[in-house]
């Protein structure tokens, strides 16, 4: 089964937020209606895209964006707002926004912008093949290949590998992996991440050109050699 992108929508207009969730039916979309709650959720860094309103209760969108970037959260951000002046747009881009869509908007334009941002990170069909070193991964076929040899991974191992590749050269905490792969509401123990990571390493041990590092008390890092020469 193909891994769905995770999207967080921070929008205080609940009807609009639910409509956005309904529009983006190819992703796992979560909605929150408060700025402080949105910041807390976004800081988990398990999302592939953040759709962010600017006029929010308790903390505005620009302050959320500024704090995320200051804390090195690099999740792509699509600002969605009624504030359409050039000054507003420039401020958003200066703080680290990736795109800007003003209200009211057409459903088709929202979908086009969302898909463009996701494709940039290899998260949609059309960008469904990922590669690190001599390991190639096909998201659609759920297939992993090292040189000419196919590698048999179970669903969770495959999803972990996809997530690591999509976040190569970035530190991923154990909690982030757990929330992304098993879900917020899972009753499984956090230590399951170590078990699956150990099994994954054994199965791809012959792959070259990258290394999955364990950072004690921090998390994991997929280090790609060719990008650091």
UniProtKB/TrEMBL annotation:
Which residues, as ranges, make up the DNA-binding region of this protein? 127-224
GO CC terms on record? cytosol; protein-DNA complex
Q: List residues, modification 4-aspartylphosphate.
A: 53
- Domain called OmpR/PhoB-type: residue spans: 127-224
So which residues are the signal peptide here?
A: none
Supply the Gene3D superfamilies for this chain. 3.40.50.2300, 6.10.250.690, Winged helix-like DNA-binding domain superfamily/Winged helix DNA-binding domain
Which GO-annotated molecular functions does the record name? phosphorelay response regulator activity; transcription cis-regulatory region binding
Cited SMART domains: REC, Trans_reg_C
Tell me, what's a Pfam family for it?
A: Trans_reg_C
Instruction: List UniProt keywords, sorted A-Z.
Output: DNA-binding, Phosphoprotein, Transcription, Transcription regulation, Two-component regulatory system
- Coiled-coil intervals: none
CDD domains listed in its UniProt record: trans_reg_C
Query: Where does the Response regulatory domain lie?
Result: 6-118
What InterPro entries does the record point to? CheY-like_superfamily, OmpR/PhoB-type_DNA-bd, Sig_transdc_resp-reg_C-effctor, Sig_transdc_resp-reg_receiver, WalR-like, WH-like_DNA-bd_sf
**Biological processes per GO annotation:** regulation of DNA-templated transcription
> Please, which domain of life does this record's source organism belong to?
Bacteria
TM segment ranges: none
- The protein's name is Two-component response regulator
């Amino acid at each position: 089964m193909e891994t769905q992108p995770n999207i967080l929508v921070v929008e205080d207009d609940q009807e609009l937020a639910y409509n956005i969730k309904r529009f983006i039916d190819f992703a796992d979309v979560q909605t929150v209606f408060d700025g402080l709650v949105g910041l807390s959720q976004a800081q988990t860094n398990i999302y592939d895209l953040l759709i962010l309103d600017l006029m929010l209760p308790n903390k505005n969108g620009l302050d959320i964006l500024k704090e995320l970037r200051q804390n090195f959260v690099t999740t792509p951000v699509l600002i969605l707002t009624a504030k359409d002046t050039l000054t507003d747009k420039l401020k958003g881009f200066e703080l680290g926004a990736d795109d800007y869509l003003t209200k009211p908007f057409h459903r088709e334009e929202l979908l086009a912008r969302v898909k463009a941002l996701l494709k940039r990170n290899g998260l949609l069909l059309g960008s469904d093949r990922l590669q690190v070193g001599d390991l190639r991964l096909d998201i659609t076929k759920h297939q992993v290949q090292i040189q000419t040899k196919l590698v048999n991974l179970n669903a969770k191992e495959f999803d972990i590998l996809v997530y690591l590749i999509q976040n190569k050269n970035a530190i991923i905490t154990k909690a982030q992996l757990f929330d992304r792969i098993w879900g917020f509401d899972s009753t499984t123990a956090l230590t399951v991440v170590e078990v699956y990571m150990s099994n994954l390493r054994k199965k791809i041990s012959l792959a070259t050109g990258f290394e999955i590092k364990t950072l004690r008390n921090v998390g994991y890092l997929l280090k790609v050699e060719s990008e650091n020469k």
